[in-house]
Amino acid sequence: MSADLVACLAKDSDIAAAMERIGPCRLRGNDGQEPYDALLRAITGQQLHGVAARKIFGRVCALGETGEIDGPPPTPGHLLSLSEDVLRGCGLSAAKLTAMRGVAQARLDGIVPSRLEAADLSDEELIARLITLRGIGRWTVEMLLMFTLDRPDVMPIDDFGVRAGWKRIKGLDVAPTPKVLRLATESFSPWRSALAWYCWRASEEGKKGAPNPLTG
After folding, report:
1. CA 206 to CA 130: how far, in whole Å?
2. Percent helix, strand and coil across the chain, each rounded to 5?
3. What is the pTM of this model?
4. Are 74 and 65 in contact (CB under 8 A)?
5. 10 Å Cβ neighbour count for 109?
6. Cα–Cα nearest to 42, from 29, 53, 32
7. What are the pLDDT tens digits along the chain (216 aa)?
8. How far apart are CA 8 and CA 164, in angstroms?
9. Which listed residue, 50, 166, 182, 197, has the most CB atoms within 10 A of its CB?
10. Dihedral (C-alpha) 145, 150, 154, 155: value to the nearest 10 degrees?
11. Which domains does the chain have, with CATH numbers?
12. How many angstroms separate the CA atoms of 36 and 78, rounded?
């Protein structure tokens, strides 16, 4: 962790205590994926347990050029050429299939940027652009910003785990509303992604099992 990050978060005594308990921030800001790939993975995982989502996404990736379950998913043109029966055979619902095809077409149309193209767009510009796509909401784009594009100042105020973690860190009786959380965390810019990570970890304290595979 950078000294600036630590100084910014630790100026709050409650957050400093949480940092002491949890340890250094291990936020994975760059998962090496292209935004197109990350969005397909996100769509696959919606409303599914992590293990099931990984299996289904592996089947989708096996339809790609490498034919490997741990390889990249089919390119946009290839995905659009696949029949509905083939894609549904991976375990995708009709809604997810439609959303994934929409993302593929949006990549071809330039709406979904490459990593290089995304570097020229602000967080809010990327959110405004990508939430126009079916099956892609603000939270999904925020996860893309945090874990694929390595953006340091994202606070997903609608995330239940983040709100629950803030409640625990601050010793509140109830979790804050998204608006209250946004206002309460504005002063921690430009390191709010790390703060969100600490909120996720705080929300998991005392619980059995591994951390969330996405946010861990």
Report:
1. 36
2. 60, 0, 40
3. 0.90
4. yes
5. 9
6. 53
7. 789 999 999 999 999 999 999 999 999 899 999 999 999 999 998 888 878 999 999 999 999 988 999 999 999 999 999 999 999 999 999 999 999 999 999 999 999 999 999 999 999 999 999 999 999 999 999 999 999 999 999 999 999 999 999 999 999 999 999 999 999 999 999 999 999 999 999 999 877 655 555 565
8. 21
9. 166
10. 100
11. 3-28+155-204 (1.10.1670.40), 35-147 (1.10.340.30)
12. 13
Q: Identify the helix (H) or strand (E) that includes residue 183.
A: helix 178-185
Rg (CA), the chain: 18
Just list the catalytic residues: 159
Measured distance CA(147)–CA(167) in Å, rounded: 23
Give which of 204, 209, 202, 206 is closest to 167, Cα–Cα: 202
Amino acid at 33: Q
Alpha-carbon span 43 to 94, nearest angstrom: 12
